Amino acid sequence: MESSIISKLTGMGVALITPFRQDDSIDFDALGKLVDYQIQNKADYLVVLGTTAETPTLSKEEKDSIVDFVKHRVNGRLPIVLGCGGNCTANVVKDLQTGNFDGITAILSVTPYYNKPSQEGIYQHYKAIAQATPLPIIMYNVPGRTGVNMTVETTLRLAREFDNIVAVKEASGNINQMNNIIKNKPRDFMVICGDDGIAFPLLTLGAVGVISVIGNAFPKEFSRMVRLALNGDFDNALLIHHRFTDMFDLLFVDGNPAGVKCILSAMGFIENKLRLPLVPTRLTTYEKIREVLMSLSIKC
């Protein structure tokens, strides 16, 4: 694996939200300000069209517009990882073979959802994807959403057999599983944490970073925590981790990205709008988020 890919995917990636106006249209002005905010506050890379972007509710035209907009706004200042996955292998392969990936550093591809494939099915799915593109691929294991867990054995099998499968975003919540992947993986294969709340402990075990939701709102603080941990300064990293513990709990109590959109709305970045079937946080959650923001000395 090229060392440049490792360096580009090390640290804190931010799973960008999609800001909407009250009429359900995409708020590109807010998106542009959010991208600039990430760059100014030292995010290491951006993830476009991931789960946090409410991608299932976006049309193809909207997805293309978002990707073009972000690439233009970033203008080479940060690596961009693009979400490209699905539960029809043939469609994902077609997208990879026909899409325009200029300016894209890597692909983030989720395990097939709803179908509930076997481990062999997951292996064959990623094999087809790896053979369809020369781009670096980050596998995304998130059984809470997909209904199936990609096991340690399947992850390692794919990591060993395909040079362009460079990493896994692990969001199984199973620390033992993640540790076993880190312990037994090929030297250059990367494990990226997919849960803000356990990013710190996973970094201490050997993860290279996190693809973060909370980083949308707190890129400076959270990227500093990641860098401190990667540099072995676990004491100071732990202080930042503990500072955000209450916010981690509130972030997902009403679903993602409802929590982070509530935070960003309270901070004045966006309108607190999601597309159905997602809805904003409950009023009680909103008030608790405001209280935590005040305790963190964040103006709202």
- Provide the succession of SSEs: HEHEHEHEHEHHEHEHEHHHHH
Percent of residues in β-strands? 5-15%
Q: On the 0-100 scale, what is the average pLDDT?
A: 96
| CATH homologous superfamily designation | Aldolase class I
Number of strands: 8
What's the topology here?
Layout lengths: L2 H6 L2 E5 L12 H13 L4 E4 L11 H15 L5 E4 L5 H10 L7 E5 L8 H14 L4 E5 L1 H4 L5 H10 L3 E6 L4 H10 L5 E4 L5 H7 L3 E4 L6 H12 L3 H10 L1 H8 L5 H9 L16 H13 L5
Structure characterization notes:
This protein is an alpha/beta fold. It has a single domain (3-231), classed as TIM Barrel (Alpha-Beta Barrel), CATH 3.20.20. Helix content is 47%, strand content 12%. The protein contains 14 helices and eight strands. It has helices at 3-8, 28-40, 60-74, 89-98, 119-132, 143-146, 152-161, 175-184, 199-205, 219-230, 234-243, 245-252, 258-266, 283-295, and strands spanning 11-15, 45-48, 80-83, 106-110, 137-141, 165-170, 190-193, 209-212. It has an eight-stranded parallel beta barrel, surrounded by six helices. α2 (28-40) packs parallel to α3, α10 runs antiparallel to α11 and α12 (245-252) runs antiparallel to α14. It is globular, with a radius of gyration of 18 Å.
Summarize it:
By secondary structure, the chain is an alpha/beta fold. The protein has helices at residues 3-8, 28-40, 60-74, 89-98, 119-132, 143-146, 152-161, 175-184, 199-205, 219-230, 234-243, 245-252, 258-266, 283-295; strands at residues 11-15, 45-48, 80-83, 106-110, 137-141, 165-170, 190-193, 209-212.
